[in-house]
Specification:
heterodimer, A: mainly alpha, ABC transporter involved in vitamin B12 uptake, BtuC, two-stranded antiparallel sheet, 2 strands, 1% strand, B: mainly alpha, 74% helix
Chain lengths: 334, 290
Amino acid sequence: MRDAAAILAFALAVLGLAFTTDSGVALTFLTMTLYAALLAQAWNVLGGFGGQFSFGHALFFGTGAYVQAIAQLTFGLNAWLALALAVAAAAMVGALVGALTFRYGLRGSYFALVTLAFAEVFRILAVSVDFTGGGVGLMVPLRESAANMQFGSRRGYLMLALGFVVVALALTAWLRHSRFGARLQAVRDNEDAARAVGVDPFGIKLGAIVLSGGLMGAGGAFYVQVFQYIDPGIAFGPATSVEALVAAIVGGMGTLWGPVLGALVLHVLAETTRNLFGQLPGLNMVIYGTVLVLIVTFLPRGLSGAGRSVRDVFGKRTAASASTTGIAPGRRDD
Amino acid sequence: MLSFDVLFPSVLNGLTTGAVYALVALGLTLIYGVLHIVNFAHGAALMVALYAVWLLKTHLGIDPYLALPIVVPGMFALGYLLQRVVINRASHGKDENILLVTLGLSIVMENLALMAFKSDTRTIDTPYTLTTVAIGPAMIALPKLIAFAGALVASAVLLWTVRRTDLGRAIRAVAKEKQGARLMGIDVDHVYAMSFGIGLACLGAAACFLLPAYYVNPQVGGGFVLVAFTIVVLGGMGSFAGALVGGLLIGVVESLGGLFLGESLGQIGIFAIFIAVLLFRPQGLFGARA
C-alpha cells in the first residue's frame, strides 16, 4: 500500500515537472532518464530479485525493437498492437533462454556468459537475414499521432515512458510483497534451501526471466518509436545490456527505487560531463564503467543501500579485531 | 566444394588463428583456474596490448616481434597492478562482484581507447605482411605461420612455468587450497596478482604475434572475449591442455564456418558450440572439476 502511494507520488511529481517546464532539453532529459530507468528496472527483476546476472539483456531489448519495427513496416500493424507483440516476443525469447539455461542449472558467471552469447547470436542473425534489413537496419516512417504512438511534442514521449516506468515499478512492488516475489528472493539467497522448503527454482526463475524480458522488450519498442530506427548493433550490441545493468547496480539491486535512482544519477553524470567536456565519443561509457567499479568496491548495496554499507564497514572492523582465529573463510553475508 | 584443395588451406588457416586463440585462452584459463575470476576484461586487455604494439611500430618503428620484450612485461605489470589495486579490493570474496568489476574495467579500457584513437581500424605495414609460404596446395601468410609457432612456444613456456617453477607450484597450491597455501607461508595476494599478471602477459605475446596479420580498433577485444571463453569452457575451466586443443579446434571451426556460411554468419558456429557446451557439458571436454 505504501509502495502504491509512493509510485503514485512519483508519477505525479514527474507529471508536475513535465507540465511546469517547456524546455526541450529538460523534457528530453526526463524522458531519457525514465527510459533508462525502465531498462534498469527490467534488469533488476531478474538480476536484483532473482540473483541471475544477465550480461546480454540487449537480447530482449533488440527482440522488442525489431518486432515493433517489423510489425509496423512489413505487416502494417498499428503501433500499439505492435507494442503488445514486441513485449510478448521478448517475453517468449526470455522463456526460451530461461528454459534452456535454468534447466541445466547454469548460474553465476556461466549464466552471464550464456546470455551474452545469445545476444551475440541474435546480432549476427540480424545482420545476416533479410527481414531485419541486414546491417543497414530498419527505418520506421514518421507519422505523428497518438494512435500511432508517435508524438509531435516531447511531452507525449515523456508520458509514454512514464507509463512504462510506472508499470515496471508496480511489477517490482508486487515482487516485494507477493508469494512469487518471496519465492524468487528465496531462490536468489539460497537455491538449495528454497528447494528444500518446496519452492520450484526452475519455474520461479523462468517466471522472472519472462517478466524481465517483457519489460526489456517494451524498452526496445519505445526506442523504435522515439528514434524511428533500429540496426543490429543498437539492438543486440553490448551497450544496452551494460546500461541496464549498471544503472540497476549503481542504484541498488533488488530494491524498488534503486534502478530509478541509478538511472537518474548516471544521466546527471553523463549530462554534466557532456557540458564540461563536450561531446566526446566514449566518455559516457568511461564514466559508467568507473562508477560501476567504484560502487561495487565501496557500496556493494548501491546508492540506496549506502548507509547500511558504510555501517557495515565499521561494524566489520570491530568484529574483525574481536576475532582471533582468522582461519574461518570470510564469507560476507548480505 | 568439398575438395581437398579447398578444405586443406582453410583448415591450415584455422589452425594458425587457433594457436593465437589458444594463447589468449591460456591466459584466461590460468586466471580462472587460480583466482576463480571470470575475467571479463580479457578482451579489452588484449586490445590494449594490440594498441601498444601498434604505437611501438608506428611511432618508434619497433618491429612487432622485437616488441615482445617490451609488451609482455608491460602487460604483466598492468595485470599485477589491476589485480592488486582494483579487483582484489572490489571482490569482497564474491564471484558476482568480480564479474561486475572486470566488466567495468573492460568498459573503461575500451572507451578510453575510443577517446584516444577514435573508432578507426588500424593495421601496420611490415616487409613480410604480404609474404606467403606454400604448404602443399595452401598458401599461408608468413605472419600467420610465425604466429602459430610463436603461440605454441609461448604456451610451452607458460606450461613449463606452471609445472616446473616454484612460482608455478605456489600458483597450483593456491588454486587447490587457498587456506592451506597461506598456512605454508605462501603470500596468497602476491600469487593472485602474479597469476593475473601472467594471464595478461600471454595477451601481450598474443598481440605481438597477432598484429602483423590482423588489425586493431577499440572494439576488437569484444570478439575475442566470447571466443576465449568458448575455448576455456570447451577445454574445461582451468585446464591448460584443454585450452590449447580447444583453441586450435575453434580456429578450425571458425575458418570452416566462414568457408561454408560466409563471413558474418560463419561466426555463429563458435557461439553455437559455446552455448551447447555450457548447456550439455559445462565441465568441458577435458575438465574434471566443474
